[in-house]
Amino acid sequence: MNTCIPESEACPHHSIPLPARATVGDVEEAFDVFFQHTACVPETLELDLSCCEYIEIATLVYLVAVMAGRRRDGKRSLLRLPDRKHVRDVLRAWEFPKALREAVGLPFTEIVREEDRKYFGENPQPSDIRYGGRLIQGVPHVGEARLMSDRFFAITTFRPVPSVDAARLVMEQSGRWDEVLVKAVLAKHLNGSENYFASRIVFESMYNAFRHSGATIVQTASRFDWEANHFTIVFWDNGESIIDTLRRPLQHQQSVRTASAEVIQAEYDVVIKDPSGHIVCKESIGSGFTPNAATPDGLLLLAATLPGVTSDTAGKQHEVHDALRRESPDLAGPGMGLYVLTNAAVDLFGGAVSFRTKRSFLNIKAPSPSKSTAKTRYRAKVRTYGEWIPEFLGNMLTVRLPLRVNRAL
């Protein structure tokens, strides 16, 4: 990274304007373009949300991670709030200010630019917040409204503590998704069985986050998005990258393969993109692929999702949900966690799962019907970002599941 000359001389004001439709992919692209044309990582960076007309929950978590990473590196971040009140209400309803405070360690007043503090207190009553009274806009239901009033789907923060059993905490939190009311909502709007959501998506995602070395914070959030026609749940931790966790034993010539997954046979049609977003390679990889110390980061990230690949082959930290062990014992062995998650999201619910860590991005979904074969079960897109963009702090995992019907907001 180039050494910066003083901002007062080189770049008195750095700002990244977020697009009107602020999906996490478009926001990531805005960051990529900005850093490609900036000679250094600015000491102060403004994230400009003023033109946002729509912002997805994954974008909010992504921004928390970016600002937490900059704070860790001694950099300052500022927010320019959305001009549109309904978008500001999204930030409020999903408790974005609180999530930022807990991840960055600064009050929201110190993160928002001074001119935008006029928006503070603009909703005297909770009912004034557009999204504050219902879980799903346009679907009035007393029980669903109670879920939203309890902030069930808001950004929630957890702090791993060595003295506290992570598996027990994760089991308690995944158990919230097993409650009768929640399962009824999931059954009503998702394509797959609500019985698999807590044990195979929430448990595996959260336990994966808690296991990352050095993680001091884990955040999760979710949303039924009727405009985009999917349900999204996001998990982020600020710990060691999945890539580094898996690379460490490989650098010491240690095995990262277990024998417990030999019965799983799957093919992955892999598309690899370079930092410019151009496809540089298309290849088919079997679920038996075993990485080595020379495997590039993007493929190593994919390898971490394959059945039986783990940095903990002895299973010393291995835990699974009781329901998974009872229903599918062949999926309950060491190194199966991220495969169980992927299998549930893609095969059982018809959705997709994405990972973002360091300078790598991975998305896994079902192949198109025209390309599906008896062996091919997944289509994976791997992208590596350029050295010009700062490494993403920790690991962000996003699961998107399609909804049964599309309702307008």
List the helices and strands and how they pair.
Blueprint: H1 7-10, E1 15-17, E2 21-22, H2 24-36, E3 44-48, E4 54-55, H3 57-72, E5 76-80, H4 85-93, H5 96-104, H6 108-111, H7 142-149, E6 156-158, H8 166-176, H9 180-189, H10 197-211, E7 218-225, E8 230-237, H11 242-251, E9 267-273, E10 279-286, H12 297-303, H13 322-327, H14 337-348, E11 352-358, E12 360-365, E13 376-384, E14 392-402
Helix pairs in contact: 3-5, 8-10, 10-14, 11-12
Task: Explain what the structure shows.
With 409 residues, the chain is α/β, with parallel strands linked by helices. Helices cover 33% and strands 21% of the residues. It has 14 helices and 14 strands. It has helices spanning 7-10, 24-36, 57-72, 85-93, 96-104, 108-111, 142-149, 166-176, 180-189, 197-211, 242-251, 297-303, 322-327, 337-348; strands at 15-17, 21-22, 44-48, 54-55, 76-80, 156-158, 218-225, 230-237, 267-273, 279-286, 352-358, 360-365, 376-384, 392-402. The strands form three sheets. A nine-stranded mixed beta sheet has the order 6-7-8-14-11-12-13-9-10, with helices on both faces. β11 and β12 form a beta hairpin. α10 (197-211) packs antiparallel against α14 (337-348) and α11 (242-251) packs across α12 (297-303). The chain is globular, with a radius of gyration of 21 Å.
- Uncertain runs are 1-12, 133-140
Q: List the total number of helices.
A: 14
- Main beta sheet, described? 9 strands, mixed
Enumerate the strands of the largest sheet in spatial order, edge to edge or round the barrel.
6-7-8-14-11-12-13-9-10
Assign a percent range to the helix content: 25-40%
N- to C-terminal distance: 44 Å
> What is the global morphology?
globular
Radius of gyration over C-alpha positions, nearest whole angstrom = 21 Å
Please trace the helix and strand order, writing H or E for each element. HEEHEEHEHHHHEHHHEEHEEHHHEEEE
Please, what is the average pLDDT? 87
Percent strand equals: 15-25%
| Structural class label | alpha/beta
Total strand segments: 14
